[in-house]
Batch of 2 targets.
Target 1
Amino acid sequence: MFAVKRKGKFMKRTKEEAEKTRDDLLKSAIQVFSEKGVARATLDEIAKGAGVTRGAVYWHFDNKAQIFDALHESMHRPFVDGIFEGLEKEHPNPIEQLRELWVKLFLDLQEDEIRRQALTLFLRKCNYSGDLAPYKEQHRKKQEESMQLFEDYLNKMEKAGKLSTEANPKLLTEGMFCFMKGILFEYLDEPEKYNIQKKAPELVGFFFNCLGQR
Amino acid sequence: MFAVKRKGKFMKRTKEEAEKTRDDLLKSAIQVFSEKGVARATLDEIAKGAGVTRGAVYWHFDNKAQIFDALHESMHRPFVDGIFEGLEKEHPNPIEQLRELWVKLFLDLQEDEIRRQALTLFLRKCNYSGDLAPYKEQHRKKQEESMQLFEDYLNKMEKAGKLSTEANPKLLTEGMFCFMKGILFEYLDEPEKYNIQKKAPELVGFFFNCLGQR
DNA sequence: TACAACATACATTCATGTATGTTTGCTGTC
DNA sequence: GACAGCAAACATACATGAATGTATGTTGTA
């Protein structure tokens, strides 16, 4: 996978090479975690996926749980930023803007396997019990923060008079999260069999089309 | 938990007692599975929760995966039946009927810990990899069947003229499933902290008030 | 008394964590 | 600029524990 390092059996790496090893380990971990689930994933398999041994794993990380957390650390922020980047542009209709945003997000997943696997991992393949428990609250808090950003956005739009008067930003945010998470959950169950290209516009449209009327 | 059998160390059971042991094992499994996740659950803990040893487990079941499947077998049908029982009564407005149904379903979960744990287990605590893989398609098929029942129901209502002309039964069914699953997913993450009493009516109402018309 | 319904004991596997070995990049020194 | 020598960045080897599956023992019931 990321196996080829240089040539010999083992050579000391430069700092950049070491950083690459760490990245490869994280990428491999995403792959293995999303396939077998965090609990059933082994450090040996993660190491092999990165073309190294468990020695490298224990050099860069403390244990599996910390790899898991490091993954969340490295994936969450870019993901959230990517979303709100789309919301910063001016748009006459926030509901329409949200609709476009979510459809694009789902469709983009088709060609972003890493992100797809990461979402699978955090949504379906970890249960935050045992050694992952310490990170549960932490990760949940991050998610609530990004949810708050949506609510802030809708509040801003409401004050700007761009939102229907009967719309409720908090309720809309919560409902939207439930709905989108539901779609994601189904899609990620079997991405190959799920026709996201067709269903994302349908379902997201279904959600926002009538909200726009209100 | 279900520890007290009779008195001595071990006595051969009658058939009814053996059946009870099996039931106790399943109940204990729900508990353990929903807490630690299927992967991290051990047969020893399940046995202890039922007041027996692993000997009893291997007498009644082949392995952990089969317990998992037996649980699905015993929980799915009653759950689905319970839902559609509510839909068989006559009601002037199907959308309103669905709204009441879902709200009731969520609220009832508050006092039905077993069902709550079972849903947690199948929705959040199993990933159908490894030894559970053989059951994935099987369980998924059952879910699709019950989804089809909803669609059938809406189709019937449409033909009876009880549904808005612009409503799309298939899309409404899919959207509804995503939305409700999203709520369930959030609720089951931390049932104690989630104010389902308040949010279930809010969110379900939000969904059907406007989306239901289409 | 044979067998159902378990308990107990044992062998095996598998993943983890750690201890130790190995190679080279890098740093200071002369 | 050559040359130690330390330590970074791993690989390898080993010890440990935990869970599984199975084999065997036990008891009361039908």
Note: Residues 8-15, 42-44, 54, 58, 63-64 of chain A lie near DNA strand C (CB under 10 Å from a C1').
Target 2
Amino acid sequence: MTVTLDQLQAFVATAESGSFSAAGRVLRKAQSAISTQVSNLEDDLGIELFSRQGRNPVLTPAGERLLAEARVVLDRREHLIGVAASFTAHVEHRLVVAVDELYPEKPLAALFADFAAHFPHVELELLFPMMEDVSRLVLDGKADIGVMWRQEILPAEIGFHTLGWVPLQLVCGKNHPLANGAIDFEELKRHRQLMVAVRSEGPEKQRLRTAAEVWWVESHWVILQLVRQGIGWALVPDHIIENSPVREDLVIPPLRFDGADWPVALEMVWHKQRPSGPAARWLRERFAAMRISGLPG
Amino acid sequence: MTVTLDQLQAFVATAESGSFSAAGRVLRKAQSAISTQVSNLEDDLGIELFSRQGRNPVLTPAGERLLAEARVVLDRREHLIGVAASFTAHVEHRLVVAVDELYPEKPLAALFADFAAHFPHVELELLFPMMEDVSRLVLDGKADIGVMWRQEILPAEIGFHTLGWVPLQLVCGKNHPLANGAIDFEELKRHRQLMVAVRSEGPEKQRLRTAAEVWWVESHWVILQLVRQGIGWALVPDHIIENSPVREDLVIPPLRFDGADWPVALEMVWHKQRPSGPAARWLRERFAAMRISGLPG
DNA sequence: AGTCATCTATCAGAAAATCAGATGGTATCT
DNA sequence: AGATACCATCTGATTTTCTGATAGATGACT
């Protein structure tokens, strides 16, 4: 004989319920069936799993250890069945999500943890594209769902939904001229501004442009590195400043003018024509239901 | 019916051998048995694993994915059986090894990789004790095997075996007075020496003492940090210097006297009276068979 | 101490699953 | 076209597993 899943099941049920009889009741089998199955398992493994001194069987040290192993084997069977079920339910086996770094990581991590619990069998690929355009990735089928900042013109094939607005902070290095005292709007124009090198052209690209001289940098993270060196000032979302390794060298100077949180709209995008499975739909709904840390949408 | 290990085995064998017939030959069963078992598995999972268009069955995408899962389940069964076998063979379930940092990590890692392959079911705990004495850990039963540098007096209950000698290098900071030019033995005595704070007293503790003024530090790694600051000079094994994060700031000055590699003997120790299982014996033999990077023992 | 409920191991027969071998049909190669 | 190797399916035989019964043992309770 060879070790059988039924044997392992009888073993685990016995360990969990505390007696062969109870295990029989749980598994809807006769007590004798459980008893012999566990006994056979012990013969196959060549080791005693339960000590049968008293009225109830009690795990031996070996039984204790092997119980954990048995649970693993049974879990893997359940997992296999789950994978098969997700195939028949036409759940995606793989889902690619492209998220702009503007989206705060903390709720993102919570969301994906939740996703993993709901769809344990779906392989998730997360992209944080730098220079590529999120909407282009979605358009080309390289990503199933995208989260990006607003682009005025989106192709008609792309569906979208506004998630909310992320407020930006004005930040500069602590040795930068702007770091001392409150800032005038006109003053801003005289210093170099660092902006993310947005990919597609359009009016949105220019909306935040304030200074005469602008450098284009591929990521907010890199921008902070440059800001720290005193190369210029920038508009960067809160959460990126918070989590920056160089945040001690950064200054958020007070402003002498209003309406100065420069909100940026975050959009969720997908391809209208590509059919989306249950996992993609679930993720879209959850994205839409979440509120961004800033103003609600 | 529920998914059975036999079914999975038939499935995997079919996928590996390319046909039901071949799988039957491999598993020493009739072709019909394999065929029906795979068919039953497909019914249970509710999905087609093989496409049966041509002469031979060929995996569907779902089959491809589930094949990996099936292999995992079968592997876990083998693992369980292996754990049980190691119980009956009275293999230790846990082995604690205390290694002095003098022992080079590279061969150590290779050795333990090998160990993991031979004894996959043994939990290994590795200690790199700082201030505690390795022989004391072994004596107290907190470690099964120890590798330490030679202590003249070892308790009688401790068995030991000399593994080899580790040569030490004289090292100092690049701004230290000794860093310029070849070094005289008398010169050494005038500068502060940093030594590892060895735990037990004994003549071995004093053997390497050269300077008048000595600081005792708990680890060679920390010693290098201090040496880098120019606090003193030290004798440190090669591999620790190599792997130090501060090695650019260190200098190994030339010496104007001979016999200056200060070899330190490494011993393997164990408790004679405590019975050792197969894993401990294997590890002892392999330790003994290895040559230290320096002179052979 | 005696009673009772509940547990375990084991047995025999019934029920179920699995297997081998035979058969017919089909794809592939020569 | 013929030969070969393969697959699906059927049937009866074999093996395994299950149930239900029985006897002995343990622990709780009076």
Note: Residues 1, 6, 29-33, 36-37, 53-56 of chain B lie near DNA strand C (CB under 10 Å from a C1').
